[in-house]
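In the lab's daily routine, each protein ends up as an entry in a very long ledger. A line of letters takes care of the sequence, but it says nothing directly about the fold. The three-dimensional part falls to structure tokens, numbers that each stand for a local backbone shape. The outcome of that step, for a single protein, is printed below.
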Amino acid sequence: MKGCLKKIIGTAVLLGVILGMSHMSVVAETGEEKPAAARRVDFTELDEDDRFVIVHEKRSRVLCTLPSANCLAGMPARSEGETILSLPEETAVFSLERGEDGSVLLRTQEGYLTSYRSGNGVYFSREASECSRWQMQEGGFLYNSGAVYVAGSDTYTNFCLEYYHGGRYFNAYQYEEGDDPTPFALACYRLEDGYELPEGIGDEEGYRLPLFETSDIHGYMVNTANEEYEYRLSWIAGKVGDKRRKSGEFRKDRTVLLDGGDIFQGNTLSNLLEGKPLSAAFAAMDYDAVTVGNHEFDWGLENVFDPDGTLLDYQEGGEERINSIPVIVSNLYQDGRQVPLAGEYVILDKTAVDREGHEVRVKIGVIGFAGDYSGAVLERNFAFLGYEIREDYDALVALAKELEESGACDATIVLTHSDAAYLAGQLERDTAIDLILGGHVHSNDVGRNGHGIPFAMPAGQGKACVTADLVFDLEEGGQPVLRGVDGLRTVSTGRRASDLYDTVENAQYLDPDILRISRDAVADMEEVLAQSLGYITVPVERFDFLADSGDRSSTAGNWHASLAARMTGSDIGFYNQTGMRDNLRIPEGEDRREVTVSDIYTLFPFSNLIYSFELTGEELLELLEYSLTPSGTQLFSVIWGIDCYFSDMTVNALVKDGEVLYADGEWKNGHEADTFRVACSEFLATTDRPYEEMHNPLCAWKDTDRLISSDITDVEGALRVLREEAAENGGHLGVDTRPHYLNKDFDGKAAEE
């Protein structure tokens, strides 16, 4: 935390920080300027009928409605001088409601901008609460006094909205007088009557080649988590198809379509059907190339890629089909040699077209590159098989230079399963790389590095895709030369979930071939998808952190950790925040939700084995101390079965079943010698992320007699435990709503059950 806002300055003025900007204009896809489409105004000038956007001008980022984890995305608002050239489609357009206390409610069609009562997140809530009431102060501060955060004996209030550049999202923190005000300096622009956000930007000059990228689909060709299924990949295919048909005839050579990895593993349909529907869908969409993500190793590379370096072949209509989509990665090795199941790059022969329909042939080089995600792959599927990733940026730059100088390509793209912004930051000015497309982090981002190299990556699970135009000019001899990348942005898969439903109204947006493949997959698994296990009356939420937990405990975390413990007969369970992939929410107007087999496959998508250890109290304390380090927190995010009071990286007390085991640095009644059964996923038990001199102790203990069992798969174990619980309780499945990591001093009393 950054401390409390100790002094609130002046009277309420909306977010103004850069006094010289009186107005800006927005250019739509047609290239026609709309004068004063959005004008910078003070708070006092706004009426309740006005629409406005919130911009962090230092970074040219606008607050968007597309969430990134528990935060709200900040996406680029392209500008030149005092003019904003474009706003992304996902821009949050606000209206306001005034409160009697001088506060305002900031409302979009997604809901009210709201800060968490405990924790740093901001989100859009359907109903307004105290944490939806914002005060606007001089200096560009937008703060929320309804939010309270307790850390040990300290209480923090006044959550200020900031743009967190390191994570590329808007969040809520404290601003203390004397701190750097830059992250908190915001500005507001009112949209004029009739203005609609543009679907694209730029003029139509030059020869244009449309480009799309998906990444981290994780099997979500269809989202089956809700009552109405969302046909996400069919919607994306529809957008790609629109560009391929723009001239009146369908031509694959008039687009580039790429994927940044993590294609198959993660969704019920794909998991149960071993990725075959995804392979069929990618073939039908005519992807130009894909790269290798960390979750391609979950099933083994040989089970998702063919020996010739293409995606796995598939069956359709009872016949074997050849999948010819190339797999590329230039820096993945096995036993010291380039992996045989992927090439380093591909050269794509494409056609760029100008506004009169004139064509020019262009060659696009696409180089595959893996960020070092080895720490996000199970040890037995990666290191034990001799795999290695070499993050050699000099070699990447040299390969791009070789391709262009040899005349092999007219433009060079790096397709990486890693943070595109980070990779861009590793590149110097003198490089032949023209565009970086990334993934892995499940976050929309678009921008340029300090040398102007553009980068982009989309949100995961089929929620968005990247789109742009590669724009070429012709030299005197007729040779195409890349002018630049235009209209680079991410596009959400539908503005609303209802845009993705399989309805007559949506038929014009959903690609019929991908829709057919998706329907067939749903039909194959319909009985399993719909099978009810029981019901919950409390929502299972990943990011609605429980009070006093220091943003660690949640109902979803309790559920995952408790199931890990229960399926192995353990006393204590751990789970990691990133291993929880969905929420189970109660439908609006209902008091319960049926939990289906599909839900459990969605919650436990990676088929991890559950490891159970027998540890002494001293060993448990060592594990908990590691779990409080920055590295350990990434793995042992949540706990169930014991209450761990902590401050910073110190365990203050341990309480189990109402009994104090450890407090103030001392064990009570010899509990340090007691034995405890501790359960966690294989990923937690086998992944070491050191912090200074501390290592994950389970990595050493897994090869000793402390390991009791490791033969239960998480999803199968969870299904068994929940069926047993439902049978005992008339179908009711309990959800623990108490925090078990407690970020506060211990008062000597055990927490009430």
Remarks:
- The domain at 207-524 is CATH 3.60.21.10 (Purple Acid Phosphatase; chain A, domain 2).
- Residues 78 and 84 are 6 Å apart (CA to CA).
